[in-house]
C-alpha cells in the first residue's frame, strides 16, 4: 500500500462517491484504495471480504 495515505482513494458510504484524500469525515468513508477504479468497487470488495471472513469464522467453530 502506498505511503501517502492522504492522497489515496476513498469510497464515501453516505454519498456513494469516490474521493481522493480526506474530503469527508472518516465515519462516512471506507478505504483507502490505491486506485479510483478499486474505490469504485468498494461495496463489491467489502461484500467479498465479509463473506470470506464469515466463512473463516464458521470453519473455526
Task: Describe the structure in your own words.
The model has no long low-confidence stretch (mean pLDDT 92). The N and C termini lie far apart (32 Å). With 61 residues, the chain is of the alpha+beta class. The protein has a three-stranded antiparallel beta sheet with strand order 2-1-3. 39% of the residues lie in helices and 20% in strands. It has helices at residues 36-40, 42-60, and strands at residues 9-12, 18-20, 29-33. The radius of gyration is 13 Å and the shape is elongated. The protein has one domain (5-60). This is SPOR domain-containing protein.
Structural key phrases:
alpha+beta; single chain; 61 residues; SPOR domain-containing protein; 3-stranded antiparallel beta sheet
Structural class: alpha+beta
Radius of gyration: 13 Å
Query: Unreliable stretches, pLDDT < 50, 5 or more residues?
Result: none
Q: Please indicate the percent range of residues in DSSP E strands (runs of 2 or more).
A: 15-25%
What is the terminal-to-terminal distance? 32 Å
Number of strands: 3
DSSP summary: helix tally: 2
The string of secondary-structure elements, in order, is: EEEHH
Kindly state the percentage of residues in helix. Answer: 25-40%
Mean pLDDT: 92
**What overall geometry do the principal axes of the alpha carbons give?**
elongated
State the strand order across the main sheet.
2-1-3
Biggest pleated sheet: 3 strands, antiparallel
Overall number of structural domains:
1
